[in-house]
Amino acid sequence: MFEIAEKKQLSHTVALFKIKAPMIAKKRKAGQFIIIRLNEHGERIPLTIVDSDNSEGTITIISQEVGKTTSMLGALGKGDTIMDVVGPLGKATHIENFGTAVCVGGGIGIAPVYPIAKALKAAGNKVISIIGARTKELLILEHEMRKTSDELIVTTDDGSYGHHGFVTQILQKLIDEQTKIGLVVGIGPVPMMRAVCNVTRPYKIHTVVSLNPIMVDGTGMCGSCRVTIGGKNKFVCVDGPEFDGHEVDFDELIRRNRSYLKEEKIAMEEATYHEGTRCYERR
Amino acid sequence: MDPKEIKERMKIPRQAMSEQDPKERVKNFYEVPQGYTPELAMQEAKRCIQCKNPLCVGGCPVNIDIPWFVRLIAEGKFVDAAKKLKETNALPAVCGRVCPQEDQCEKVCLVGKKGQPVSIGRLERFAADYEREHAEVTIPNIPKWTGKKVAVVGAGPAGLTVAGDLVKRGHKVTIFEALHVAGGVLMYGIPEFRLPKKIVESEVEYVKKMGVEIVCNAVIGKLETIDELLLNGYNAVFIGTGAGLPVFMNIPGENLIGVYSANEYLTRLNLMRAYQFPEYDTPVLRGKKVAVVGGGNTAMDAARTALRLCPEEVTIIYRRSREEMPARIEEVHHGEEEGLKFMLLTNPTRFIGDDEARLKKVECIKMELGEPDESGRRRPVPVKGSEFQIDVDVAIVAIGNGANPLIPQTSPDIKVNKWGNITVNQDTGRTSKKGVFSGGDIVRGGATVILAMGDGRKAADSIHEYLATGVW
Q1: What is the mean pLDDT of chain B?
Q2: Which part of chain A has CATH 3.40.50.80?
Q3: Sign (positive/negative) of CA torsion B424, B429, B434, B435?
Q4: Residue B245 touches chain A, beta carbons under 8 Å
Q5: HSE-CB of B297 using CA atoms within 13 angstroms
Q6: CA dihedral of residues B14, B20, B26, B27 (deg, nearest 10)
Q7: pLDDT of residue A31
Q8: Contact B264 A223 (CB under 8 A)
């Protein structure tokens, strides 16, 4: 059992959790993830480790309520427990001084971008961050990203905050302004990552993305997370989660992530959340 | 035993074990064979002629004293029989069910030379089940701590055997398991109807009661490296991480929705209980027409699991003929009884999907058998122009596993072969790294539960010797 030491609601559907997992806190590096299982009947889902605190022995994750498991997680609070937490999984981000690194985060994808931006900054890079959300209410980690970036540009799709438009427009602008960019890190919804890669491709700017396929064991045993990278089958859990964005077959990833749309709906309908009792009951 | 009695015993026919009716069992996940009654077990045990030089013992990878435990069953001392078994085998209820006895102990049984061999596997199962069901499980005396600590990586058949053997010799043992439960392939791979998970849980419980500590959710190579284990007070490490990355065929369409590796399909259904979705949260695509590619035991497990999810049809696609199928005859037979279809001398060439990338068809090519290859089996050769398509909406690829890279990635001083499997001394399980041993599928690439346990047994002997002498 892993105790939730702290919870902070970042938006209506997005929450930050600090989980007591001292061993993982000690070992984890930027770019790595954990797999959690909430209870005996639960599924295993991967979540990026956003941060850790060695002295408290906690790791930080950020989760958005999209399906049954993430909704149940969202209903948990300080002092509640998660049955299984395993990690750190996946390869750590390759960190070196690239000169200028542009960190692009979209929506919930700002969460996995943050630890990478922090590590890049610590390695001496000039970090320019572009973070975007649909609307102001959904923008997360602005303060943290500002602290770890030399420059921060915020965008919202509806213009409710910052630049009215998409993160890719700002990225294009930076390139047009002849900014010398050594690395672009782009993490967010798959269409956004694909768009970021399409922006940088003509200029051959090294672009790293972090993929979020469906996983089961997360240790290379099942192959659920396979994605075509540069024409070859790769397992995101052990070969990734980060890859050269110009080699990723994003269309395939989008399709594979839709494998269980019908089942996800059934699972949500079967479970009715009761406010106050913090439990899901079958109809 | 005098010749007259031997003659009498040889006259007793092999006792059948009752099984769930195929029409019924294909609708449920309950166990198929239902085990012997005490009467049937005693009758079957009496068929053993108690050879002076029993060949069966040598046929067993962990060298169980078979005539002894069988004699105890014949005498009605069922609990004693179970205890005898457990002296050499920590998991008898598992082995009695999943060992390929027909290729091991029963293959060399003298009684079998003139008729049917003694049903050693069924008797093993009976004794272990009797002991458990009658709450007679007792823990052997554990000697005083030797002061030595051993880390075991992976709580599968190899790891559990090593741990059980070493704790009985007074060493402290901690098993680190990557998944959320112990048991390895016994939990995620072998289906409930062949090996009920409750039985695995109780055998794991037994190992724990002997004093073995099991830490789940611990991925060695990530959470801690082998070097860190050795630095942090463990005197020896055994690596039993099991099957690794599933092998795919590298044909077009293999990443369509509905194409699974056998590992994923079985893990979803066994470990995560997707057959009870949505009561359990993990889903699986059920499919009307299911194809399983491969002819081994894993393919049979996947196919027979698929049969239980109410499909219209489940077909095994195998590139050689029936004679070359590596699956146990019993499993093929069970599958056939349950309505499994076989498309032999056939190999998939591509998967075809719809506009949502969901699997719809498989294109196959006919094969014929050519000259024997290195394995001695005749090599399948495609018949030119014989391609054809069949409707399939779920396909399961069961053609084997590669090696898991997690430990070699962080311990480059542990030698691996060109496939990434750990290289060991076959007699001792010693790797190229001092104090580190290995066995089971991470060494063999893909074998059986009992061979993994045999590796565990040998490694435990060698670890014990190393801990006593310090000599590598």
Answers
A1: 94
A2: 100-257
A3: positive
A4: yes
A5: 15
A6: -170
A7: 94
A8: yes
Helix, strand or coil, per DSSP, at residue A189: coil
Q: pTM above 0.90? A: yes
Question: Shortest CB distance from B244 goes to which of A84, A86, A220?
Answer: A220
Mean pLDDT value across chain A: 93
Q: Tell me which residues of chain B, numbers 297 to 356, contact chain A at a CB-CB cutoff of 8 Å.
A: 356
Fold type of domain A100-257: Rossmann fold (3.40.50)
Does the CB of B254 have a partner CB in chain A at under 8 Å? yes
List phi, psi (to 5°) of B306: -60, -40
- Whether the Cβ atoms of residue A224 and residue B264 lie closer than 8 Å to each other: yes
Nearest Cα residue in chain B from A270: B278
Q: Which chain B residues are closer than 8 Å to A89 by Cβ?
A: 219, 222
Distance CA B152, CA B238 (A): 5
| Nearest-CA distance B355 → chain A (Å) | 10
At a CB cut-off of 8 Å and minimum separation 6, what does B77 contact?
A: none
Distance CA A20, CA A34 (A): 13
The architecture of the domain spanning A2-90 is Beta Barrel (2.40)
> What is the reported pLDDT for A88?
97
Q: Return residue ranges of chain A for CATH 2.40.30.10.
A: 2-90
Instruction: Look at residue B322 and tell me whether its pLDDT is greater than 50.
Output: yes
What distance in Å separates residue B439's CA from the closest CA in chain A?
A: 17
- Say yes or no for a CB contact (<8 Å) between B261 and A222: yes
Is residue A25 less than 8 Å (CB to CB) from chain B? no
Interface confidence (ipTM) of the complex: 0.92
Angle at B72 between CA B68 and CA B74, to 5 degrees: 115
Element (H, E) at A228: strand A226-229
Instruction: Dump pLDDT digits (tens) for B283-308.
Output: 999 999 999 999 999 999 999 999 99
pLDDT tens per residue across span B42-97: 999 999 999 999 999 999 988 999 999 999 999 999 999 999 999 888 899 999 99
Q: Residue B377: its pLDDT value, please?
A: 81
Residues of chain A with pLDDT under 70: 271-283
